[in-house]
Amino acid sequence: MKLSNKQKQFLKGQAHSLKPVVLLGSNGLTEGVLVEIQSALEIHELIKVKVPTDDRETKALIFEAIIRETGAEKLQTIGHILVLYRQSEEKKIQLPRN
Question: Matching NCBIfam families, A to Z (predicted)?
Answer without folding.
Answer: RNA_bind_YhbY (TIGR00253)
